[in-house]
């Protein structure tokens, strides 16, 4: 009896394991050969998978297939301004600060440092069996949505309001993150959120964007196109919202026609998390998540962040899609994994040899400090009150964020043992003999319950008061993280919290004749009506990263001159803005805004004076095949060594037909010692002199154009606030 039971169980076991054993014997492991093209390797591997195994690779958590030596892998990792949500890493300034540097070369160095740390962390994680979310090499960064409206809480993730600046910084970031090895990606970047996703945050799962073809091609497409065609970004993430009546993740116009056919994109497309199911849920575009999965797959989405693609087998069985289409989408995913070297047992490659000493290294910390220095914008400096002397006798630092580390970090951040608050930075910068005093003075987001607040009175005894105010990711940002926001992370107005405004006015009342220095931490524009005129100096520090305190102190006490420029217009108030939920560019950004803002795009002061002179053009008239060559002399006529950001704008005489009033076409950050001058040259390609018409066509539009070179966007306000007088010349397009 026992023998019969044993025999029966053995037969059953063989029936179950037999096919697997046969498959194991038949597996072709030639896909592991590194000398084969990735397309061939991916096809060799995926062709040996069952339908279930293929579908198991199509969500952000990809299953292990042990018989094929395919480990499990989680695609979801973040690296907006440093490796995020994955333990210790260097925290660089928030992305909006990257834009403020106007320095693509520097941002490429930053992204290279980020991917260096990512590789080191990945090697360690793999060795300990950590295959979790955020521990991979496929980073869902950068964000290249346009910061079209300053009320957008997630604007801090963007590089600014200008598509040209966004493109240059974004391409640099992708190049740095992905590396320069022709055979292996250092890490995989992902451009998000394709294509129009700039609020309102509370309704992001439902709203529909309808824009003109002119706005689409002039404003919203360029950064994504640049990342795909120039930087060869490995991934693209679709947005939550609908575009032209279709959920972004189901749009064949966006994914198939634009990305794949027109831009020749050869990477993977992922949905945002839960977006595919949202097409049936919040958006109600289809009746079921099964139909949503069908449409997303057909449109070209390779990867589902979420679980909706687990239903694809049912879709095959019902004849809604074919296994051949699934096969094609999965092959694309494995091309990315092969490009990352995830199936190569090569411990001698320069990327796989990166050691743990590169994580939060002294070199990367120094780089974080440099980027923070170059991202801080000096908005006002009345009577040259700055820089302060380190030997100042009685400095006073105060404000709700003077001793805050949270304000350094922004959203999508890592963690670090090296966070330096503004108070700590100032403490390290002043003389040991200085009587530095510190009091918080005001709570961040609520009125002080106790009215007996001595902090304003301390300003009366100080030689200078440095007040640090602003917001944080708790007040502006992604809805699920902005826990202090009553509007899902967006802003109804641009004012500071009322208690902070009240405290600033208390300081103004008590400080007497001593100067008040306002340091603002925010991810976007802050309205300073009723405040600006009472401040002697104003610094916009954004969310400056772990070295923010040292960087702010470096500027306050003259170790370096401020050099950043505003990557977004600072309006006076929300009354100057169009409706938040309208995506038309009319009245938005420096390119279309007719009202005078508080601070213009491209503006920022230094501790010296710059003079522009001797501008020349290569011709007075240009034909359609002619480039524009511009030369200008830039002189530092002041007493401080500086970095200057030279900016070139094209301003059409005729702005009919909806074209921009002015457009940034080139910029260069240069170092300029006091008393010296440099000749700067720009070459603008004929293609970049064209404009998009109302049909979305790029055309050579004849007429006169003003070529303006300076250190801020053109306009009387820039000069009034302290920018240099620009050089201007007329060019005629024939």
Primary descriptors:
TIM Barrel; Rossmann fold; 734 residues; alpha/beta; 6-stranded mixed sheet; 5-stranded mixed sheet; Immunoglobulin-like
Q: What does this protein look like?
A:
This protein is of the alpha/beta class and 734 residues long. It folds into 3 domains: 34-71 and 190-339, Glycoside hydrolase, family 3, N-terminal domain (TIM Barrel, Alpha-Beta Barrel), CATH 3.20.20.300; 369-592, Glycoside hydrolase family 3 C-terminal domain (Rossmann fold); 610-733, Sandwich (Immunoglobulin-like). The strands form 7 sheets. It has a 6-stranded mixed sheet with strand order 9-14-13-12-10-11, with helices on both faces. It has a 5-stranded mixed sheet with strand order 16-24-23-18-19, with no helix packed on it. A 3-stranded parallel sheet has the order 3-5-8. Helix 5 (104-127) packs antiparallel against helix 14 (362-375). The protein starts with a helix and ends with a strand.
Distance between the termini: 100 Å
Classify the helix fraction into a percent range: 25-40%
The total count of strands amounts to 24
The secondary-structure class comes to alpha/beta
Question: CATH superfamily of the largest domain, called what?
Answer: Glycoside hydrolase family 3 C-terminal domain
Q: What is the rounded Rg? A: 28 Å
Overall spatial form: globular
